Recover the amino acids of this structure.
């Protein structure tokens, strides 16, 4: 089985870090990911710099990334101004977020869920005209930090509504790491029925140690793209206790042992995770860098 890995450390990973990371180091992180075999990178977000200061240099990052054949770069976009910036920066993909609950949507994007759907529809039309790959991400699809449980039926109704704009890809995001494999299977089955032509993608956080179990469930249910962050860094600045994404190197170890092909070298990602920890001045959450591969390399 083949699976595509979307590396999100440059965007979702770094956006929550308190210490500013230089543009050069962000570019080097992306370079190292590409050198390890990653072919899709969520590199930047085009949001107001006062809201997410770590992403203020999005244009400079995109100006410096390598552009080998087969590698695509995504930018997170919330509004028309963000899409204008994304187009000028020559991204290959846009990721547009619709939040499953009104309270979190207002805090994250300054609009209700219904208004978020309207924004997605307008941005999707513009992005399609520009020839960009369009992903719509349903944030807080498994639970909200402010409203609590999110019913699968309400998420699937939201999927039905966003699917009307014919997204290339639909991503289910467990923004605060509360999902479980049974809910993952339920939602993926629903997405496949409602939007059969869309690529299925999942974004998991390991906040409560369910992220990797959810990743396996997603693959078995039909997801073909998984987000992961080198080192397991990341989180949402607008969601309390939304700690790290599943770690790219740990996920790759799991997938490699399962015989799932990604084309990404876990060893090189592990080295990047260790480099990233040195850059951030703290250990990263990923475990492969501590335990090492199995079987161990010959000495």
């Amino acid at each position: 089985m083949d699976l595509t890995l979307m590396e999100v450390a440059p965007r979702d990973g770094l956006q929550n870090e308190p210490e500013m990371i230089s543009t050069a180091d962000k570019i080097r992180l992306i370079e190292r990911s590409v050198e390890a075999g990653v072919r899709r990178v969520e590199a930047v977000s085009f949001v107001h710099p006062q809201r997410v200061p770590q992403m203020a240099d999005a244009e400079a990052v995109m100006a410096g990334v390598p552009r080998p054949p087969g590698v695509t770069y995504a930018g997170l976009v919330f509004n028309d101004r963000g899409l204008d910036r994304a187009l000028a920066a020559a991204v290959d993909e846009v990721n547009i977020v619709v939040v499953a609950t009104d309270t979190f949507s207002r805090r994250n994007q300054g609009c209700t869920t219904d208004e978020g759907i309207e924004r997605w529809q307008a941005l999707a039309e513009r992005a399609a005209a520009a020839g960009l790959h369009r992903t719509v991400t349903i944030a807080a699809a498994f639970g909200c930090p402010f409203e609590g449980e999110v019913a699968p039926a309400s998420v699937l109704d939201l999927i039905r509504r966003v699917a009307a704009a014919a997204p290339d890809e639909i991503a289910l995001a467990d923004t605060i790491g509360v999902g479980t494999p049974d809910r993952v299977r339920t939602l993926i089955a629903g997405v496949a029925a409602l939007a059969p032509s869309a690529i299925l993608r999942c974004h998991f956080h390991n906040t409560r140690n369910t992220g990797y179990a959810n990743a396996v469930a997603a693959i078995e249910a039909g997801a073909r793209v998984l987000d992961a962050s080198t080192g397991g860094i990341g989180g949402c600045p607008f969601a309390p206790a939304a700690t790290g994404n599943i770690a790219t190197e740990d996920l790759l170890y799991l997938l490699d042992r399962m015989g799932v092909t990604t084309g990404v070298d876990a060893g090189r990602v592990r080295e990047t995770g260790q480099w990233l920890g040195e850059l951030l001045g703290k250990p990263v959450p990923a475990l492969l860098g501590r335990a090492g591969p199995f079987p161990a390399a010959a000495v």
